[in-house]
Amino acid sequence: MIPKALTIAGSDNSGGAGIQADLKTMTCLGVYSMSVITSITVQNTTGVFQRYDLPEDLVYSQIKVIAEDISIDSTKIGMLGNGKIIKSIEKAIKDFKIKNLVIDTVLVSKSGYHLLEPSDEKIFIKNLIPLATLLTPNIPEAEILASMQIKSIEDMEKACKKIYKYGCNSVLLKGGHMESDELVDVFYDGFKFEYFPSRRVNTKNTHGTGCTLSAAITSYIAKGYTLLDSIKEAKKYIQGAIENSLDIGKGHGPLNHMWTFYKG
Fold this sequence. Notes:
Elements: E1 4-12, H1 18-28, E2 32-44, E3 47-53, H2 56-69, E4 74-77, H3 83-95, E5 101-103, H4 121-128, E6 134-135, H5 139-146, H6 153-164, E7 171-173, E8 182-188, E9 193-199, H7 209-222, H8 227-243
Parallel strand pairs: 1-2, 1-4, 4-5, 5-6
Antiparallel strand pairs: 2-3, 7-8, 8-9
Helix pairs in contact: 1-7, 2-3, 3-4, 5-6, 7-8
């Protein structure tokens, strides 16, 4: 049986991030991918210009018909839009006993556009984070969640502990915003830390990095890998996708999700 993964996220019409990046990633990693759209964005490589959140009952219904028909091995959650959508997703997760949740903390775009209403961040923290098998914030997002500045590995460890207290099973704090040639992602599960180093790639084409990493982790979980092995394999995949990123558009170009088949 082919592994099956679901992505619940926003649509990026330029194809570099969101639902589109998730589906590309899952397909390239040999997983049957399904999608639930929470919001439609108007964006390209230079930024996000507009957002339309779908009605929360429509989001719930999308999840419902998939869960009632097709088994779901793992699920990635990305852009949410607003608190009503968050609550509808929470209800669906509980109603249909959806497991193996990788939640990417999509709060603000690279260009500074809010992808979740700031007033609804508390709903995200209270209603959705406790359901996460793995939460994958970057440093700016972790600074919001942990209410602190992050300037070092020690700060990342402290932030992981604070975020973990919101109730998730584990946290992967991504270190891509650190100013160093060697980047380190810090994993914490309430008992131990694990460290995932990678080298910085000199490219501006990093659109969709967070979406792609979380989708890759979700894919490997669907394939039966352990959580830590899923992170390790996903890190290998995204490193290659960044190293072979595509110089498309006038801003931050997309990753090359198909780099294992051809190089950009």
